[in-house]
Amino acid sequence: MNFTAAHIGFVLASYGISFACILGLAAYVIARDRKLRAEAQRLDAARRREQT
Amino acid sequence: MTRKAGSGYESAMQYLANPARFLRIANAALPYVWSIALVLLAVGLYGALVTAPPDYQQGETVRIMYVHVPAAWMALFIYTVMALASAVAIIFRHPLADVAAKAAAPIGAVFCFLALVTGSLWGKPMWGTWWEWDARLTSMFVLFLLYIGYMAIWQAIDEPHRAAMIARIVALVGFVNVPIVKFSVDWWNSLHQPASVFRTDGPTIAPSMLWPLLVMGLAYSFLFLALHLTAMRAEIAARKIRQIHIAETGAR
Q: With the C-alpha atoms ordered B86, B90, B94, B98, is the resulting torsion angle positive or negative?
C-alpha cells in the first residue's frame, strides 16, 4: 500500500473506525458475558446454600 | 417416510432446544471459532493491504472495499438470522430462538453502522459527497433504524414475553427491507455500483482483489459467530438471573 497516495486518509480512517468498533463490540460482549455468568453462578450457589 | 423425516427434524430441534446442551456446545466451540476468526482476519488484512493491487481508476481508495463490503454483507446476513430466529420462535416456540435473535441485534447494528460509515468515507473521494439519499444508501439506513428499533423494544418493555412478541413481529416485518437493500441498485438508478461478487454471471472483480474480499467476508462471518455465541451465552445467564430473582421475590 502506498501511504503517500491521494485520499489515503479516507482509507486509514475506514480501517481505524472498523477495528475500533469491532474491538469495542468484542470487549462489550465478552465483558457482559463474564459479568452475567459470574452473577448467575453466585446467585445459584447462594440459592443452593439456602436450600441445604 | 415423511413421518420419519419429520420426527428426525423435531428431535433435532428438541436436541438444540436445551440451553444446558447449547452452553456445552458453545463453550467447546468458542476457542476454535475465535482462533479461526483471528487467523482469517490476519490473512484477509494481509491480502487487502499488501498483496491486492490498487485499482486503475480509484487507486488506493479501493482498499476501503475490504472493510466496507463484508460489513454490508454481515449487516444483511445478521438481520436474516434475526428474522429466521423470530420465525422459529413463533412457529416452534424454540426456547433459544428469541435468545439468538436478541443477541444478534447489537452485532448486526455495529456492522450496519460500519457499512454506512465506511461507505461514506469511500463516497466522499469517489462521488464527491459523504451522503446521497439514493435507494441503496437510504435502504441501508432504514436497516440500521430497524436494528435500533428492535433493540429499543427489548429495552423499553419490561415484560419479556410481550417484548419478545413485538420484537419478533418487527424482525419479520423488517425483513422486507433485506431484498430491497440487495436489489436496490438494480431496481433504481443509484450512485452506488451494482453487485460485482454475487451475480448470476459470476464475479466481475479480478481474482487478485476477489480473494482478499472473500477471506475478509469469511473472517467477519466467523467473528460474528464467535460474538453471537458469546452474546447468547450472556443472554442465557441474564435470563437465569431474572428467574432466580423472580423465585426469590415469590418465596418472600
A: positive
